Structure formats: C-alpha cells, structure tokens
Amino acid sequence: MSVNITLLVVMAALFAAGIYLLLERSLTRVLLGLILLANGANILLLSTGGFAGLAPLYDADIAPEEYNDPLPQALILTSIVISFAVTAFMLGIIYRSWILGRQDEVQDDIEDRRVAGQGSFDAEDDADVPIETTEFTPVEEAEEAPGSQRPGLAQDTKESR
Amino acid sequence: MNISNLAPLAVVLPFLGAAIAFVLIRHSRSQRAVSISTLSLTLLVELFLLFNAAGHGTTAVFIGGWPAPFGITMVVDQFSALMLVVSSAVSLAVLIYATGQGMADGDEDGPISIFHPTYLILVAGVSNAFLSGDLFNLYVGFEILLTASYVLMTLGGTSPRIRAGVTYVVVSVVSSLLFLIAIAMIYAATGTINMADLSLKLAEIDPATQLMLHLMLLVAFGIKAAVFPLSFWLPDSYPTAPAPVTAVFAGLLTKVGVYAMVRTETLLFPGDRINTLLMIVALLTMIVGILGALAQSDIKRMLSFTLVSHIGFMVFGLAISTVIGLGAAVYYVAHHIIVQTSLFLVTGLIERRGGTANMDRLGGLAKLSPILGVLFFIPAMNLAGIPPFSGFLGKLGLLQAGVELGTPVAYLLVGASVLTSLITLLTIARVWNRAFWRRPEDATHPDPILMASKEDGTAVRTSRHVISRSSGRFAGRAAVNLLPRTMVGPTIGLVAMGVSLTLLAGPLFSLSDQAAQEMLERTPYIDAVLGEGTAP
Question: Does the pTM of the predicted model rise above 0.90?
C-alpha cells in the first residue's frame, strides 16, 4: 500500500500550526488552533482509509478492491459536525468574554491566586489554645466575668486577620 | 424477544424528552413534568436491563440489524448496566433538586429554561458512552455529554463561569481530539473499531504499536477521568458552575472516563504491561489531590480536590486487575458517584442557607439547621471511609486485593490509601468545625442571614426577616424559602441511597465481582458481540 505524501505533509503542517496556536494566551488564537487540530485529525482519519478508489456504490461488475473504504469518511463526517458545533460554542464564549471584560485572553483564577498566596499559618487551626490547668475556676474571677466561657479566643482570631 | 433489546431506549428516551422539553421551552411547568417523567422511565428501563444482565450475563444489541463488526453495537454487561442504573438514579435526584431550586426562586422563564433539554442530552450522552460497543460510538457519546456540559457549565454566562468554561472547553476538546487521533490510528493498524473485534485483532499487531495505541487511549481517557498529571483542569472549572450542575458533573463525567479506562484495560489491552505505571499514577493522584484539598477554604473547591484524589482509588483497583481488585473498583465507582454527588448537593444547600460556600465565613450551621448537619455528616463520613459506610467496604476490598498482590508498589499504595483516607477525614473535620460547630459570630464577615434570628430567638427559615439587611442576595424578592423541601428531599434521597449501599453490600459485591470476573475473562463480551465460539 502506497502512502499519500501530500496528505501527510498537510496533516503535519496543520498539527504543528494548531499546537503552536493552542499555546497562545489569546482566545481567538486558541480557537483557531483547535480548528486546525480538528482538521488535522480529520485528514489523519481520511488517510487511514487507504488509496482513493471508486465511490462505494455496489455494482456486481466491480471487484471489491476497487472501492474506496467508506467507513473513515463516515467518521470524518461525524467529527466535522462535532467540531463545527464546538467551534460555534467557543465563538459564543469568546464573544461573551469580550462583552463582559473587554478582553480576549485566558483569565487567571482569583481563588487559585488567593490559595497560593496564603501563609502556612492558619489562625484558626494553628493558634495556641489556652490550656486550662486548674480544675476549678477561682470564685472571684468567675464573678468578674460571667458568661465569657472562652476568654479571648474569639477576639484573638478576629484581630489576627 | 429479549429484554436487552430495550437497551437503546436508555439513549433514545432522554433524547426524545430533550426534544419535547425544548419545544415546551415557554411552559416551565410542563417542561419539568416531561423531563422528570422521562428520566424516571429511563431509570425503570435500566433497572430491567440490570436484572437481565445479572441473571443472563452479557448481551448485545445490533442497531438496525447490522451484525458486528460492521454495524453499531450496544453491549449490556453487568458493569455497564450497574453504571447506567446508578447514573440515572443520581441524575434524577439532581434534576428534582434543580427543579426545586428553580421553583423556590421563582424562575418561571428566562435563560434557565434551556437547562432541562440540555440536562437530558447530557444523560443521553452518558448512557450512550456506557452502552457503546465500538470506539467511535464511545467518542460520539463523549462528545454528546461534553457539548451538553459546556452549555451547563456556562449557564447564565457570568464572568467567573465564562473564565472557568474556557479552560474546561479547551481541555475537553483537546482530550477528544487525542481520542479521535487514537481511533484513527487504531483503525489504520487493525481495520476495525468494534471493541470486541479489536480485542482479538489488537493482540496480533506489533507490541510496540500496541503500546503506543494503548497509551494514547489512556491519556485521552485520563484527561476526562482527571487522573493526576492530567487533573489540573477539574478543581479550576467545576466549582463555579451552579450547585446541581457541579453535583452531576462530579458524580458522572469523571466516572465515564474511568469506565472507558476500565474497558481499555480489560477488553482491548489485557495483560499487566503497564499496571505498575497505573499504580504510580494512582498513588500520585491520591496524594496530590488530597493535599490540594487540605489547602482550600471554599467547600466546593475542597470537594473537587477530594474528587480527584478518590479517582486514584478506582485506578488502583483497575491496576491490581485481579477479580477482587477490579470488583472492589466497580463497587467503589458506584459508591463514589452517589456520595460525591450528595456532598455537592449538600454544599449547594449550605451555600443557600449560609450565603457562601467559603468555610471561613460560615458558622453555627449545626444549630441553625440540624438537618443540614446530618445530611453533610453522613456522606462526608462515607467519603472518608468510616466503618459502617460503603466507602469503608470499597476501600477494604481494595486494600485486601492490594495486600493479596503483595508487590512493593502494591504495599506502597495500600499505605497511601490509608493516608489519603485519614487526610480526607481531616479536611472534612475542618469543614465540620468551622461551618457547623463554631458560633456564627466567630466567622469572618458572616452573611447577614447566618446571624439573623426571629424576635423569639429561633433561626429564620425564609429570607423575609432579613430582606432589609441582606444587600443583594434576596433583594427585591418576596420571602424566599431558605431550605425548600423540594431541594432537601432529593438530597435526603441520595444520602439514603449512599447508606443503602452498605445494606445492599452483599448482592452488590457479588454483582461487581461477577462483572469483574466476566471483564477479565473477556469471552462473554466477545461471544455476545461476535457470536459463540469466536473468542480464543
């Protein structure tokens, strides 16, 4: 079986350009990259069908080897429809992103930045809890502060933030 | 007439329901009725399929009467039937929850009416992926569910959702392209895409080519299943979606990836060539995922990280590839779908009651709403694997299989599993301490509703009492019920289902062991698709 060099070269170019564009930060370029990659994959599917033969319409006089393999073409048709839908949706998202933020770039995740920036000390988890060593509270102290069962803890956490 | 011929209904019914729901887009009441009844009917059909598969083994349906390997085949074995039933039951509960939320907030129309048709299409895609007997149909199933999930993920089109949606869409499209390229290469190498046929023909080609095809498929499925080096996108994108959507994504979408990995490993590429690699991946997924969970203060993000981490347990079971290990993994998948979904639903309720899912700003929920405490506590303990619950049984099965295997890597993984369970318990204890046990006054910037109480000192149940104080959240609306029955009901149902996994552990484990046995033997699957006696 011979290999169609043109198809291979086109496919390689599509994949290379697609991957390059995919790594950009601009959303329209990412979309273009995805479109190129999808087309590269379609050409790969096409080339799996072997040589270009006759249209696969059954005729008793034609030997089976003469026909083209129809299955990859059916697969390509499906995958074109799917990538069409995804492209349309991506365009919608990009437009929405432009309307909302006037930008066409991949945004940072704010919560990610916040988690990355937080210190390893967590006031609530790691603070020293005052340990009660005596079993009985002296009578005078209890009278001085009725109702405050957890002295200072609530204020401490608030102040440290 | 065999009952398994009903299998295509699991895909067709949700599609029909979606079409009808789309036509009824202006009539939200009938739309709700259509989608809920469609899903209930689908669940009923799938229960029949499960009982049939448990009794009579693997069966195949040839769509349009074209015999395999030429036509499209749908295969029902115990594993796919179990997955179908669990996924439909979970999606039904989430649908009722979402409908309840919509009714409580009074969204009679508006862009949310697109939710029902899209949701049904998502369910159809998931069913199609579980049933599919050839690789390209599996790809189509993935695409159906992914396209529906893009829409659900960006529902409402707010800025954070668009940001998360972009990451999600690009990553998913790239993984689908990898899958498509792998299919093209497999077709070029073997000349077939029917999975049963492939399982015979792949064994005949050059081992190096085999390994390449194998790894390409695993990378494509690994992105979808969020296995460690490929899991970065998940905690980034899931938490921003609406609560019911996150719940159903967390429950189902990653498990479809795990399902596809199981099929690849058992049917297409049997043998233990890359089992060590899979074990190391499982180890890293568990540890890195759970350490990520420890750093989060947002409950939804924390749960997304535990989701990634617990995918590691399923990959562990798959990598052991003995009947007991694979059986435990099957049981664990079913357990994890239910538990993770119910945790996200409860988090949606917490967010509604306390105004935020950030545990630094929550407090006192155990007193304000004891039912919420119970609903969170049970699935949380279940996730961590505390004895009476199903998480413990699944992990016990995995540990047993790991020890039985006895290699150093397996022992390492047994240790990592125990460690991961302990850290899961720790992260959950943090949520519990902050959101449920401490007083609301101790929280930083608590929501006004959290602090509000009626004149007699009891907790408020509707937003009416605080409408003047809460700026924004319920502003401009009449009294909104904070915990409507239609949302609490399905959550209770799911939590009860999680508990019932313990009660039904005997039959379920025998079913999953039987499923694992048949998957490892491969002959029942191949015989069902290609006819008796074709398997070597």
Answer: no
